[in-house]
Design a protein that fits this description.
Shape of chain B: globular
Strand content of chain B: 5-15%
Number of helices of chain B: 11
Helix content of chain A: 40-55%
CATH architecture of the largest domain in chain B: Up-down Bundle
Order of helices and strands of chain B: HHHHHEEEEEEEEHHEEHHHH
Oligomer: heterodimer
Number of helices of chain A: 11
Radius of gyration of chain A: 21 Å
Structural class of chain B: alpha+beta
Order of helices and strands of chain A: HHHHHHEEEEEEEEHEEHHHH
Number of domains of chain A: 3
Strand order of the largest sheet of chain B: 1-4-5-8
Distance between the termini of chain A: 39 Å
Number of domains of chain B: 3
Structural class of chain A: alpha+beta
CATH class of the largest domain in chain B: Mainly Alpha
């Protein structure tokens, strides 16, 4: 058992940290106010590529960085601590290349990997529907074959990068009679196969709002089916553990930013003749924030290490995601509290950490679903319905 | 980073598990009703000696197994799971070999290590006084040099193993004019330097003898001083990492016992036509217990693994101790709740887990002290006074 990062990992993280603090942190407030356009988002993604982002875990021979998922996780954590909205943007974008690298045919890889890995196309993954959240079984977006194309009909909602995406990987029903065994993944190029987009106003991730996507007789070339027909759900399940642990690290990043801000403020803010960091109630809050974030960090590293080794890690991933996202909310909330009125002001970043943290307990499996997953594993009894 | 146990560790764990389940579990409930007698304690420790529980940590050159801190911790966790009190007896006695093998003279090592390794001698560490708990520097027990002996006067309290110890290591004041720098550590062998030990009955860790110890002109040969005069407090701090790391093992052990009991009960207890494990509120409790215990285990293993590599940052030891013990108290409380009325009955072990877990947040520095230590490290501001 070894809890140390390799020298390479330490360097990867510190390079990202330095760059993000210097080049990204100062520009965040402006984009939070205006929102990011597709062009602006791609320009920023391109800046991050040399640090190991975007093509992170994609094999080098396919144009990626060939990093382990644990190493990529370190990068996700660093980005999230600087910008809670851009980290999920990059993560959701990476997920496209990840799945195409895994399931794509050679022609698909040759067509889609270069623009995704260069930041010339932004990817979104569309799974959730208005009536289909925790309960994936009743998917309604269909993709019915019509000669050489699939005709996609349906609505997807709460889609990260949905507003700015050039390429959307959609989970569709190719065989409605078979339920989850009749689902497939299909790549929808927005330019070629237009669909309607409505931005959704969210309390957090305001630089990159989620989108509602309307597919109305949307024609998608047959060759855009990704992987095996009917295996859509199964294909997603294979990477879901990794995604959950990465979302956990996203939250750890936000928690760390909250700790850093609260620590700085507690040393500088004077009341009753001394720094408020001298008071035990404040000290306890800081200690609790630190303890929980450390615990969360290792809970998240573990499933990524297991994923890298090709071992079962779904329960560990559920534990990581549930815990890390929940404590980040508590940690960010404490940071707001430590800042007093300044914590409620938009002129300080803590209120953004608080709003961005609050988002993460919901996607990629709600906290409650993860608890039921763990419960089922331990008790051998399912309590979902 | 690597979250896997080595083959040696896995095999030690499974041997320890078999042993404790066959030899210790059947007698734990009955013997936990009151503090172990001198005879019973010695009998039990001698039974544990062949498995390496007493000499596990001592380097091979001094007759020990030379196990790493983590490997020993994995063995101790199995004992802690089955009988938390006995694990604490063993752990507290283990500090005899830890201190003496690291700081003792050759004579002290030759004299005391074999006795401690075989279970012939049990060891206790006498630090705390009635006016010196968290504020240990305030201690008042004196050791005045008189010819070839130190004369010890004073009272220690809450001394684990106090009534069964053959060898006591006492933190004493050798210089009244200095605070921490006036303290020394001295080995008091009961049969040549008698002291009185009065049992203090406790709510939790019931089988762990706990005593108020009085020294009245207790004559101790001066060669029993461990190290030099004036560095007692400092020497004690050297082993803080292992003390706190193993406090984590004790906590994780009782937390795991609580989970195992709760899962078994939730599967077997039927209400409203199904096992109570089929209800979401119960599933959530179990999931929360598991998540927290997993996090506690990772933090504990990290501390122990880092000890092997040299020193471990003090802040990490505080995180481990504070988090694991608070979590164990919460986990055991949930296990009690899941058992319904059976949880408060003495015929089920859960109430013992609850009382033992609750006791863990106090020794090796209270949770509150650890939070102040953590915050001082982060903020650079001490809030102890």
């Amino acid at each position: 058992m070894d809890f140390e990062l390799s020298e390479e990992q330490k360097l990867l993280r510190s390079n990202a940290h330095k760059f993000l603090q210097k080049e990204i942190f100062p520009i965040v407030p402006e984009y939070e106010r205006k929102g990011l356009s597709n062009e602006e988002a791609r320009k920023l993604l391109k800046k991050l590529i040399p640090l190991g982002y975007v093509g992170s875990t994609i094999p080098r021979r396919e144009g990626g960085h060939g990093l382990s998922v644990l190493s990529y996780g370190l990068l996700v954590e660093e980005l999230a601590s600087v910008w809670g909205a851009f980290a999920p943007l990059e993560l959701d974008h990476w997920f496209g290349a990840f799945n195409i690298s895994h399931y794509g045919t050679e022609p698909q890889k040759q067509k889609f990997l270069p623009p995704l890995l260069s930041g010339d196309m932004i990817h979104a993954f569309a799974l959730t529907e208005p009536d289909v959240g925790s309960n994936l079984a009743n998917l309604r977006t269909t993709a019915i074959i019509d000669r050489d194309k699939y005709v996609v009909n349906g609505t997807k909602v709460w889609i990260g990068n949905g507003v700015i995406a050039d390429l959307v990987m959609v989970l569709v029903l190719t065989d409605p009679a078979k339920g989850t065994k009749g689902t497939s993944l299909i790549l929808v190029e927005k330019e070629r196969s237009p669909f309607g987009v409505r931005p959704l106003n969210m309390i957090g991730v305001q630089a990159c709002p989620l989108g509602e996507l309307h597919f109305e007789k949307c024609n998608v070339p047959q060759e855009n089916l990704l992987g095996e027909k009917g295996a859509g759900y199964k294909q997603i399940l294979i990477s879901v553990g990794t995604m959950r642990a990465l979302v956990g690290l996203l939250s750890v990043g936000i928690a760390q930013a909250s700790i850093n801000a609260a620590t700085k403020y507690a040393k500088e803010r004077f009341q009753f003749g001394k720094a408020i960091g001298s008071f035990q109630l404040i000290q306890e809050m800081i200690a609790d924030m630190y303890i929980e974030t450390e615990a969360a960090r290792f809970l998240c590293y573990r499933p990524l290490d297991l994923a890298d080794k090709g071992q079962r890690h779904l329960i560990e991933a559920s534990a990581a995601k549930a815990y890390a996202t929940e404590i980040a909310v508590s940690v960010a909330s404490k940071a707001v509290q430590i800042h007093g009125a300044y914590g409620l002001s938009k002129e300080y970043p803590v209120e953004r950490y608080f709003r961005d943290a609050r988002i993460n307990t919901v996607p990629d499996g709600t906290t409650q679903i993860h608890k039921l997953i763990i419960g089922r594993e331990l008790l051998g009894i399912a309590a979902f319905s | 980073m690597d979250f896997e146990l080595s083959e040696e560790q896995k095999s030690l764990r499974s041997n320890a598990k078999k042993f404790v389940e066959n030899e210790i579990a059947p007698i734990a409930d009955k013997l936990d009703k009151e503090p172990l007698s001198y005879e019973m304690a010695h009998k039990l420790l001698k039974r544990l000696a062949p498995l390496g529980y007493l000499n596990g940590i001592t380097p091979r050159e001094y007759g020990g197994q030379g196990l790493s801190f983590l490997t020993y911790g994995i063995m101790l966790e199995e004992l802690a799971r089955v009988w938390n009190s006995l694990a604490v007896v063993v752990l507290d006695s283990l500090f005899g070999p830890i201190y003496i093998s690291r700081m003792g003279t050759d004579d002290q090592k030759r004299k005391f290590l074999p006795l401690l390794h075989s279970g012939e001698y049990i060891y206790a560490f006498a630090l705390t006084e009635s006016d010196a708990g968290s504020d240990l520097a305030n201690l008042r027990t004196t050791a005045i040099l008189n010819g070839d002996n130190y004369i010890i006067n004073g009272t220690k309290i809450w001394i684990s193993n106090g009534t069964i110890a053959d060898l006591l290591m006492a933190l004493v004041r050798t210089d009244r004019d200095k605070a921490e720098k006036g303290t020394s550590v001295i080995l008091v062998e009961k049969k040549i330097s008698p002291f009185t030990a009065k049992q203090i009955p406790k709510m939790g860790f019931r089988a762990l003898p706990c005593a108020e110890i009085s020294f009245h002109d207790c004559v101790v040969p001066k060669q029993n001083l461990l190290g030099d005069e004036g560095i007692g407090y400092k020497q004690m701090l050297i082993n803080i990492g292992s003390m706190r790391g193993y406090a984590g093992i004790i906590a994780v052990g009782v937390a795991q016992a609580s989970i195992d009991a709760a899962v078994k009960y939730a599967k077997g207890r039927y209400q409203f036509g199904k096992p109570i494990g089929g209800f979401q509120l119960i599933q959530e409790m179990i999931a929360d217990m598991v998540i927290q215990t997993e996090a506690a285990r990772l933090l504990t293993y990290r501390t122990l693994s880092r000890l092997e590599k040299g020193s471990v940052p003090a802040i990490e030891t505080s995180i481990t101790k504070a988090y694991t013990t608070e979590v164990a108290a919460d986990v055991a409380s949930k296990a009690l709740q899941i058992h319904g009325a059976y949880g408060i009955s003495e015929e089920y072990p859960v109430e013992r887990y609850f009382r033992d877990a609750r006791s863990g947040t106090l020794p090796e520095a209270t949770t509150q002290i650890h939070k102040l230590l953590i915050a001082r490290e982060i903020l650079g501001i001490g809030a102890f006074r």
